[in-house]
Amino acid sequence: MSKELDAFLEYIIVIKALSPRTIEAYRHDLSALEESSKKNLTEIDSSQMFEMLGSITNKRTLNRKLSAFNSFLDFCHRYRFESSSSKFSLSKIPKNLPKYLPFETIQSSLNLIDRSDWIGMRDYALILFLYASGLRISECLAVEEGDIEGEWLRVRHGKGEKERYVPLAAESLKALRMYQEHSPYHNRPTLWLNYKGERLSRVSAFKITQKYVGVSPHALRHSYATALILGGADLRVVQELLGHASLLTTQIYTHVQKQNLQDTVLKYHPMSHS
After folding, report:
1. Whether residue 95 lies in the annotated active site
2. Is the domain of 119 the same as that of 17?
3. What is the number of domains present in the chain?
4. Of 122, 167, 201, 203, which has fewest CB within 10 angstroms of its CB?
5. Are residues 72 and 120 in the same domain?
6. Residue 186 among the catalytic residues
7. What is the DSSP letter of 197?
């Protein structure tokens, strides 16, 4: 590993205090580029970058790698490792509306879960919890008993290690307590456990939501946000609840808001009917 890359990783760990997952992503992408190029990262030109990344068809993956490299170049320029401040342009990604499910669809699927044992109760409670809180799956699986304060959840392991509070619906809390009461590991501080009493993995959580509601845990987060927007919630409030650092990230839901306004006008305004 070059001294520049080593210094950059130390910078994002100590100064920027990024999350371990983000740091590992930077380490992986930049180390792979350095190894592939067989030279110092500051010496890579645009033609070589295109040659190394040209085969990547997924634009989000490509943008992640380019964004990591741009952050590295910016760091090098700022701390005098490199005189140039040039950056690579990212690919444009269409702003598709996130997939979401209405609560009626989620509820009807939940009613099919066999809750005669604690595993079924856990699966039911997990899906309700994700939809009621809007948490990222990593945030959800990190929740411990002490993080629940009455009807509020303190999210301590958010993106960028930022804390926030989100309210929890009574129905979700009731399902959670029922699962805990019947779990053979009810005295553990971690909420979501597998059959061995160990912390539930992301893969297992994904399989649970796919099995019962046919979507990923992240789609339940989108469903939460969409329900709030359709209910008239302010975009900045939704930003706070989702833990988005920038309002720009939350603005994808304005598409939902505009569509809802248009549907309302078409349905109720007298001039909309011929």
Report:
1. no
2. no
3. 2
4. 203
5. no
6. no
7. S
**The pair of three-digit structure tokens given for residue 256, joined into one six-digit string:** 């939902």
Range of the domain at 54: 3-78
Q: What is the pTM of this model?
A: 0.63
Q: List the helix and strand counts (H, then E) for the chain.
A: 13, 3
From the list 64, 164, 244, 255, the catalytic residue is 244
Query: Do 63 and 122 share a domain, yes or no?
Result: no
Per-residue pLDDT of the chain (274 residues; tens, 9 = 90+): 788 888 989 999 988 888 888 899 899 988 888 888 887 787 777 777 777 777 776 777 888 888 888 888 888 888 776 655 566 666 554 455 557 788 999 999 999 999 999 999 999 999 999 999 999 999 999 999 999 999 999 998 666 667 899 999 999 999 999 999 999 998 889 999 999 999 999 999 999 999 999 999 999 999 998 888 888 888 888 888 988 877 777 777 766 655 555 665 566 556 555 5
Indicate whether 47 belongs to any domain.
yes
Give me Rg for the CA atoms of the chain. Answer: 22
Active site residue 182: no
For the question of residue 136 being annotated catalytic, the response is yes
Task: Note whether 131 and 233 are same-domain residues.
Answer: yes
Say whether 218 is catalytic: yes
Residue tagged active-site, from 65, 157, 221, 222:
221
What CATH number should be reported for the domain holding residue 44? 1.10.150
